[in-house]
Amino acid sequence: MSIHKIVIGGDLLPSGINVSLFQKGDAKSLFGEEICNLFSEADYSLVNLEGPLTDEEEKQEKDGPSLKAPRNCAKGLKALGVKAVALANNHITDFGQKGFTDTLEVLNDEGIDYVGAGINVDKIKKFTIIDLDKIKVCIYNVSETFFNTPDDQFAGAHIYDEYIVCNEIKDLKKDCDYIIVIYHGGAEYLQYPTPLVRKRCHRMADSGADIIITQHTHCIGCEEYYKKSYILHGQGNFLFARQKKYPHLTKEGLLLELCFSEDSLSIFKHHVRIKDDVIRYDNSWKIDEFKSRSNRIDDEEMIIEE
């Protein structure tokens, strides 16, 4: 029986001493052999690009940090074997229209696809569809509203609107065997979904999403099976080494490996850990705390207190 694999990573942005490794395309030094093997063995792979790849200096007016990495850092993504990046996040327009268009140019030069944003509101690429022999998989990318809302003149992310999103998922499900939603939002550093985010995930699942992965919280959260859907509430970081807050939370993440056969889907979680601005596969992860949080996901009073 033929098995096809999709690998999905969390937040990534070159920063600090790893920038030169991205520019050289030195995937082994950046990610280590085990992670490189996971990506090379996958039929399709995607990570969240948490900021533009640009040399532009003019920042967007916004609250919070403005993030970017040099244009030629795309070489590191290509060397890892990344097939696509998710752009529906709160930093992709940090350096304005120029920063965004620079990003699309370098991704195109390296043959890397993208999803979740566009150069204006009419050209948002909301999803991408992957054919795995007889299995058709859709990856749908959407973000909460931050400083990333597009208009008819300015680039931005695909912004969550419940009516639009749920109806689009319903329509996509008519033609696709599986729908994977990557949702960027929630409360940073909270290891549980907020009640609002959880409700949104359930509604997307009711509309036909089979797998929902939430990002942006920068920490590993918890999981649940809702009806026939799998939801990972908080994937954690992939290689987002710039963060200094709460290192016990932000220096780790989960790589999700999805294995499709003609009649089944298997989900594997791989723990990764950031150290010295590079990332490595972690065989020592103890899953007990993750399971404990997952068992408490219905305790809304506790989550609100957290």
How would you sum up this structure in a few lines?
The chain has helices spanning 19-24, 27-40, 74-80, 96-110, 162-173, 195-207, 247-250, 288-295, 300-305; strands at residues 4-12, 44-49, 84-86, 113-115, 117-118, 127-132, 135-143, 156-157, 178-184, 211-215, 220-226, 229-235, 237-239, 252-260, 265-275, 278-281.
Walk me through the topology:
Elements: E1 4-12, H1 19-24, H2 27-40, E2 44-49, H3 74-80, E3 84-86, H4 96-110, E4 113-115, E5 117-118, E6 127-132, E7 135-143, E8 156-157, H5 162-173, E9 178-184, H6 195-207, E10 211-215, E11 220-226, E12 229-235, E13 237-239, H7 247-250, E14 252-260, E15 265-275, E16 278-281, H8 288-295, H9 300-305
Parallel strand pairs: 1-2, 1-13, 2-3, 3-4, 7-9, 9-10, 10-12
Antiparallel strand pairs: 1-14, 5-8, 6-7, 11-12, 14-15, 15-16
Helix pairs in contact: 2-3, 5-6
